[in-house]
Amino acid sequence: MNRRFAIAVIALLAVTSCAPSGISSQPTSEGRVPSANRTLVLVTHAEPSSLSEHRALYSTSGDSSDAKRLFNASFYLSDSQGVPRSLLLEQGPQLNTDSWRVYPDGSMDTVYRLRSNLTWHDGAPLTADDYVLGLQLAKNPDYGVADLKPMNVMNDAVALDAHTVRVNWKASYPGADALSARDWAPLPSHLLDSAFQSETAQAVLARPYWTAQFVGLGPFKVTEWQPGSHIAGVAFDGYAAGRPKIDRLEVRFASDPNVAVVTVLSGAAHMAMDRALGFEQGTLLRQQWGTNNEGTVLLSANNMRYTQVQFRPEYISPTEIRDPRVRQAFSYALDRQALLDTLQGGQGQIAEAFLVPGVDYYDEAMRQITRYPHDLAQADRLMQAAGLIKQSERSYYTADGKRFSVELRGASSDQEARETAINADSWKQLGVDVQTRLLSTEEYKDGELRSTYPAFMAADTAGLAEETVYVKLYGPNAASASTRWQGSNRGGYSNPEYDRFHLQLTTSLDRSAQVDAILRAAKFVSEQATLVPLFYNYGVKAHVNLLKGPQSTAPTGSTTWGVEQWDWVS
User: Fold this and answer.
1) Structure pTM?
2) Which domains does the chain have, with CATH numbers?
3) Which end of the chain, N or C, is surrounded by fewer C-beta atoms within 10 Å?
4) How far apart are CA 20 and CA 36, in angstroms?
């Protein structure tokens, strides 16, 4: 473990133990919270910009997705193993029935029937009109997400009655029976319809509804939002899966993982979720809790770390990185094992391709792709073949005599900052002049800043669902001013051949055709080196054993699945 990190944590623990806490539910010396005064205190890595899971409000900048799910509900919610489970529906679409009709031209209709007696947090009934409004807002170009999946293949939604909504699709979409809130979220028409019809998108999105006055459908409803500090909530009696057993919660914000681990170790919080903890903090917690069994650390490989490449002509610098041979050289120069050893204690798996691990087609994909083992000599040959001149052991120059220099941008968070430093050092060993820029927590929320980098940007897939992974290079998913910098294709990559692979993956109802598209896409990405896969990253969650219920999750699983059943150990 990093010695400076351990010393810093010990120092923070000493300070914390002497300082009064603002949290009302402090454990006693025996590790128990008085039963009459228990508030579940959670720590997340960032204050959300909005509590809504609607795609127009859903940041791709490392948003606090676990925390947001506590206040939201949707047609379907993935369980801890990543299996979509019906939540708000009495009946969803079933292929080859009247509820899911596919037509000869590839278009289709799907029908969703809501459970009766569901309400919003303010008591207003949930209706089909709320889903119609949610889609209308998503398809309005002014909100910046109309070109993203699945909105771009949904024609419209019609309320057949108060509880039934029919969707007409331009093309087939295999995920129609697993739509999450991020795919299609309802909006309370009794609160927002008038504003949507009469106000600009900017005015609608500036409303306090999205933050302190948020009204959702989730297991908890908001009672207070203290900017920069916390969000408080109480159990919602009308939650579709049943009223939570825990009455109250607070979600606190800690952008520094060292602060988060101290908050949990000191007893000031019961659980750290989202990205509050890194692997190193998880290791410390396991060591601290190993002898007294006071807590549990949950690990799951839930995303892939990779390096994005800039492709937009107006931002790319140096222009030589347009040459696939230069990008291939950068891939060979990276020491992925060093990343694993340093960041995850040697545990985990190197990402040799843009692939979801553990799938049944993984071995076949590995036989087809181009691999990039750590090989500085091969990297040098490719750099020189691309016309770059090595005038000394440590420097490359362009054909017009300029020193070849690149910027590698990343977040200032503990793990990503160290990842950025390791990758920069690997490229420097090749002889590349590398300048690093670390974005602050606030800068990282700026979609424009994260999309206009000149050369390379650290990133992760934000999940390991197939569509989530392969959308990163899909042309219509490119972030731009016209999309309010929404979209996870931050480098603006656009290639018709790749887009065809993505469309086949996301529109075919035949699983073999989907797998064929993935194999072709993975081979294409590896040959062109359009991005640089690094390793599969562990998500780290931790909770005190006073709290029972949280589970380890599969890569696409939900941390807060079954939160209504979480309870205190008696």
Assistant:
1) 0.85
2) 3-51+208-297+538-568 (3.40.190.10), 73-205 (3.90.76.10), 302-537 (3.10.105.10)
3) C
4) 20
